[in-house]
Design brief:
Helix 11 packs antiparallel against helix 12. The protein folds into six domains: 209 residues, Hypothetical protein af1432 (Orthogonal Bundle); 146 residues, 2-Layer Sandwich (Beta Polymerase, domain 2), CATH 3.30.460.10; 111 residues, Ubiquitin-like (UB roll); 74 residues, no CATH class; 66 residues, no CATH class; 75 residues, 2-Layer Sandwich (Alpha-Beta Plaits), CATH 3.30.70.260. The chain is α+β, with helices and mostly antiparallel strands. The relative contact order is 0.04. The protein has 28 helices and 20 strands. Helices cover 50% and strands 16% of the residues. The strands form five sheets. Strands 1, 2, 3, 4, 5 and 6 form a six-stranded mixed sheet that branches.
Length: 745
């Protein structure tokens, strides 16, 4: 056997004594766990590869001083035990670093161990090569990352396992900056990926470890609070579970129950969302009922448990989730209900079978082992196909943002008039549904009919809607459809259609311009025409012809400019040159800029009059400290310096940050949204709104109030002109009796 050969451990001289012992233990575990999965001779072949690699000293440690051989074995162990994958994935996880270092060729692996092992290694190497260029995935190489993911789902699962492995071991790493960057990427990309693939336990671990490395104080504060309240929490779970257990036993059901405390990251997110301390988070745990039921009785037994529990405790119908009838696209099946338990506390109860629980814990890899069960693999394959479609969109930044948004979306289930079921992300519109059915239907969509009622293509869909799409042959995609569509598939198809239309319009405009030149009997010189385009402010030829097609540039204007350029080239017109060194800006850099509207944004080196838009994520107003961000489309977005997205923008796209400041008088009106939390006392809302109505310079645009458990959580949108008035308003609202917190969104 492999480990009886002592020369192997001696030859890997790049390992420390502790690592050699660790390697030996890992190998024993892998042999034991995978003995029924691997073919005879697989481990002997792996032994040969590692011995050859050990003699070359080519294996380089990573930025955290982790040895690639140890890391590969640990990753393979997670792949085998915590995800439950098969032979090809386990071998690929063990060997991809050896192939990457050139110790064994991919062709040799394919020959010795099979095509599927080599195929997975190819995908893993492609990802490793991306990280060699940059230790964190950014927009430039995100497209290649998705290509690797979309080709084989097993590549994604192994990369997630590898990331979990790394995150577990970098607690004491000396390179804090590298740890923060890896933790940040784990949080915004790999945890959502694990969620999408049903790996809920690994997803929670990645989120908790990311919080630990990025916000250490918050992590340990919650951890200490959980430890301090564990005794009372366990006692309450026991009081809840005991009577339920007796009733389920009386019903003759085979089951076990357990209480599961929410993850630290989940609690932290609730604290931030609800603007409350740890003590204000009431649903710290969930009760799980896991049934031992045969496949044909699963649903029947789950609904029987549901009936028993809701007879004992008052349920909250708004918080009931049925993923039994229609599983999630990642294969997740369960019944979730929230009931009023002892002492008036809300308790979440999850009802599922042993099979469903294994799928929930280990994701799709577990799902594939069960035959005749719907959902799962087909759903995720559909999602991977949407990645392939989205790769056609052509914009890495938009693709990256849309991809991340798709990962965490909850799902709605809608039907065609014939009863065909479609799963879409929450917030999806009629337009998204049209593109989900077929690209042509999406391109010609004019609206829809839901429940016999006509709706626009902007209508958001709800689970259970039966939607009939209305089309017209003359309808074509429009630019603002990109603001309507929520799914990456729909947005990619809209962009593709707009590009094709723009190209067609530009070709038509070019033919029309050539005809105009012919009619005036003007011979066109290509170089002169290019100079004319530049004079008219167009650097890109397609932009020039699109402007002609849209009518923003007149044909006669082009003809006149062309003739002027001809005269200039002949020397008939002489322009007086001015040195760039003598050029002066039209405004004094130290004096405020006064314009007709009153407000002015001064961008970069005191340049005014530049087109910009205000970011919707932070809604800056006159008086805020701001900065500019150059978007992928070339426009400038103005953000507040304390914008929630500012750290990520500076960290990942620092080269796009532009200095900006307000000047002028501050006479424009801006929409400001405030979140208000307080006691649900009689008349408190009237007291708040009366403050606004008494001020003539304030205009209330909208108000939304939600009351729950004696607390109200509301948002107000107000029109005002600057930050000084905003501060005064917040102080007045905070002075209202019962108001606990006022926050600007």
């Amino acid at each position: 056997m492999f480990l009886s050969d002592n020369i192997l451990m001696e030859e890997i001289y790049s390992l420390t004594t502790e690592e050699k012992s660790q390697f030996s233990d890992l190998y024993k575990q892998l042999m034991q766990i995978t003995k029924d999965e691997l073919k005879e001779g697989d481990y002997e072949q792996v032994k040969t590869y590692i011995l050859e690699a050990a003699q070359t000293q080519a294996m380089q440690r990573d930025v955290f001083n982790l040895h690639p051989i140890i890391l590969s074995m640990q990753t393979a162990l997670i792949v085998a035990t915590e995800i439950g994958m098969s032979r090809a994935a386990i071998l690929a996880a063990m060997l991809n670093k050896l192939v990457l270092c050139g110790q064994v060729s991919e062709a040799q692996v394919r020959k010795d161990l099979g095509e599927d092992v080599g195929s997975i290694i190819r995908g893993l190497i492609r990802i490793d090569e991306l990280y060699a260029k940059n230790p964190i995935v950014e927009s430039e190489n995100f497209r290649q990352l998705l290509l690797s993911f979309a080709e084989d789902m097993r590549v994604i699962l192994i990369v997630i396992a590898n990331r979990v492995c790394v995150m577990r071991q970098i607690k004491d790493a000396e390179n804090d900056e590298a740890r923060r960057r890896v933790a940040m990427e784990s949080s915004y990309l790999y945890a959502p990926l694990a969620h999408k693939l049903g790996l809920y336990r690994l997803k929670s671990e990645l989120e908790d470890l990311s919080l630990k490395y990025l916000e250490r104080d918050a992590y340990y504060h919650i951890k200490e609070k959980l430890n301090a309240t564990k005794k009372s929490r366990d006692a309450y779970i026991e009081r809840f579970i005991h009577p339920v257990e007796e009733r389920l036993k009386e019903a003759g059901l085979k089951f076990h129950m357990k209480g599961r405390t929410k993850s630290i990251h989940s609690i932290w997110q609730k604290m931030k969302k609800q603007k409350c301390p740890f003590e204000g988070v009431f649903d710290l745990f969930a009760i799980r009922v896991i049934l031992d039921s045969p496949l044909e009785r699963e649903k029947q037994d789950c609904w029987q448990v549901f009936s028993i529990i809701t007879d004992m405790y008052q349920p909250n119908p708004k918080r009931m989730r049925d993923w039994l009838s229609i599983p999630k696209s990642n294969g997740y099946e369960s019944l979730h209900i929230t009931v009023m338990g002892p002492e008036g506390k809300w308790v979440e109860v999850q009802i599922r079978t042993e099979r469903m629980d294994e799928v929930a814990e280990r994701g799709l890899a577990a799902h594939w082992r069960y035959k005749g069960v719907k959902g799962g693999e087909a759903g995720v394959e559909s999602w991977l196909q949407s990645i392939r479609n989205a790769l056609e969109s052509g914009d890495d930044l938009q693709l990256m943002d849309q991809f991340k948004m798709d990962l965490y979306e909850d799902e709605v289930f809608v039907f065609t008039p014939h009863g065909d079921l479609f799963k879409l992300p929450q917030g999806a519109t009629v337009l998204d549904f049209a593109y989900a059915i077929h690209t042509k239907i999406g391109n010609h969509c004019t609206g829809g009919r839901i429940g016999g009622k006509m709706v626009t293509l902007r209508q958001e869909l709800q689970s259970g809607d039966q939607v009939e799409i209305m089309t017209h042959v003359n309808q074509v995609p429009k630019q603002d459809w990109l603001n309507v569509a929520k799914t990456s598939r729909a947005r990619a198809k809209i962009r593709q259609a707009l590009k094709e239309m723009a190209a067609s319009q530009a070709a038509f405009a070019k033919e029309e311009l050539e005809r105009k030149f012919k009619n005036r009997k003007i011979d066109v010189d290509e170089a002169t025409l290019m100079h004319t385009m530049t004079r008219l402010g167009y650097r890109i030829v397609t932009d020039f012809y699109n402007a002609l097609a849209e009518g923003t540039l007149e044909m006669n204007q082009v003809l006149d400019a062309y003739m002027l350029q001809v005269r200039h080239d002949r020397g008939e017109i002489v322009q007086q040159a001015q040195s760039a060194g003598n050029y002066q800006l039209p405004t004094d850099s130290n004096s405020p800029v006064s314009v007709k509207g009153g407000d002015e944004m001064v961008i970069d080196q005191n340049l005014s009059g530049i087109d910009y838009s205000l970011a919707k994520c932070c809604h800056p107003v006159y008086g805020d400290e701001v900065f500019g961000f150059l978007t992928a489309g070339g426009g400038i977005k103005i953000h507040r310096r304390d914008c929630p997205n500012a750290p990520a923008l500076r960290n990942r796209y620092g080269y796009r940050i532009i200095n900006a400041r307000w000047a002028g008088k501050g006479s424009s009106q801006y929409a400001i949204t405030l979140r208000i939390v307080g006691n649900d006392d009689l008349g408190i809302v009237n007291n708040i709104t009366s403050i606004i109505s008494k001020d003539e310079k304030l205009l209330l645009r909208s108000i939304s109030i939600d009351s729950n458990d004696g607390l109200f959580n509301g948002t107000l949108t107000i029109m005002l002109d600057d930050t000084s008035r905003l501060k005064q308003l917040i102080q007045k609202i905070e002075g209202v009796r019962g108001v606990k917190n006022v926050t600007r969104l």
